[in-house]
């Protein structure tokens, strides 16, 4: 099989017209060398100190523009890009319908207005403080009289008897531990082989008998302590304090009033909800002027409320709301310098496919 030719970029292909050089390279080289030759003829004979450096500079420039690319691009491309960047305009003016919007103060501050609306919506999303309770509507309750000191506390004799029984129980516990330790030593000694047999039966029987007596005494002391403790607890529980009965009085309900979201004129505000009356949070509300430019971008809080941060000039505006799975009507509002009441907006649910 014959090898396929290597693909080449035909659109940027340059023919080599003068030897191995293209016409463009030949022109750059000839311009540099020709200028250097003219300087050699005119300047060098009279001013050799200035002439020879100029000759070298122009020769090197001609060679560089013809054969030395920088980062894959010829030097002429870099020079053209430099002058184009210097003399190209750096500002653009948006003209729509024959009107220059840079003269409109709202157009210049549109980004600031947008961020102020977002900050206002974020501040309104914070949970509100709990409503204050009207203390005057509650029934005044008389505090109960101080209770006399309880007479069911244990007496001094009972406390003394309890302490003595506790000391006896502690001593018996120590003797039981010592007896068990001695019995364990006898068992270990009898298990060891010895040349002379030793009988530990009498000693072990005595320790076991003493241990049984100590356990019996400890059980008696524990029974006495339980009797004393249960008797005192029964006294305290059987006789409770006579507390007065407290009657709960519900506060008088106040008539429901509509909450004002702003006190400034020409501030568009409102409340969004669904058909069931549930507030919708996260609804994006965008206000457009009569030219179709967005002048406010708001977002509802958890109570479905939205309100602008700064007043708008008088005129006609269009309010559009958007939220997933809901549809809202487009509202047209005319501002005349008055304080606007909240707009009650009910969404239309859209079936999710």
UniProtKB/TrEMBL annotation:
The chain crosses the membrane at residues 26-44, 50-70. Keywords: Membrane, Transmembrane, Transmembrane helix. InterPro entries: Uncharacterised_PrgI. Residues 135-154 are annotated as: Disordered. Residues 142-151 have a biased composition (Pro residues). This is Carboxypeptidase regulatory-like domain-containing protein.
């Amino acid at each position: 099989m014959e090898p396929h030719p290597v693909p080449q970029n035909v659109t940027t292909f340059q023919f080599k017209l003068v030897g191995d050089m293209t016409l463009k390279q030949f022109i750059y080289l000839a311009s540099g060398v020709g200028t250097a030759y003219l300087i050699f003829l005119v300047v060098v004979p009279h001013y050799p100190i200035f002439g020879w450096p100029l000759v070298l500079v122009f020769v090197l420039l001609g060679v560089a523009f013809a054969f030395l690319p920088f980062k894959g691009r010829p030097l002429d491309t870099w020079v053209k890009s430099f002058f184009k960047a210097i003399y190209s305009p750096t500002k653009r003016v948006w003209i729509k319908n024959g009107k220059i919007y840079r003269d409109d103060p709202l157009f210049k501050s549109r980004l600031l207005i947008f961020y102020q609306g977002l900050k206002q919506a974020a501040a309104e999303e914070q949970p509100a403080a709990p409503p204050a309770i009207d203390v005057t509507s509650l029934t005044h309750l008389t505090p109960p009289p101080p209770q006399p000191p309880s007479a069911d506390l244990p007496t001094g004799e009972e406390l003394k008897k309890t302490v003595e029984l506790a000391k006896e129980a502690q001593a018996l516990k120590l003797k039981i531990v010592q007896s068990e330790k001695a019995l364990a030593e006898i068992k270990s000694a009898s298990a060891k082989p010895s040349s002379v047999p030793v009988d530990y039966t009498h000693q072990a029987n005595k320790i076991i008998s003493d241990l049984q007596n100590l356990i019996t005494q400890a059980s008696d002391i524990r029974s006495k302590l339980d009797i004393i403790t249960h008797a005192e607890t029964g006294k305290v529980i059987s006789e409770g304090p006579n507390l007065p009965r407290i009657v709960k009085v519900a506060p008088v309900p106040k008539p429901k009033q509509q909450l004002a979201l702003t006190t400034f004129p020409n501030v568009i505000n409102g409340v969004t909800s669904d058909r069931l009356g549930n507030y919708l949070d996260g609804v994006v509300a965008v206000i457009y002027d009569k030219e179709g430019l967005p002048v406010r971008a708001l977002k509802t809080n958890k109570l479905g409320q939205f309100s602008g941060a700064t007043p708008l000039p008088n005129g006609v505006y269009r309010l559009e709301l958007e939220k997933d799975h809901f549809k809202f009507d487009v509202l047209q509002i005319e501002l005349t310098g008055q304080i606007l009441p909240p707009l009650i907006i009910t969404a239309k649910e859209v079936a999710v496919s």
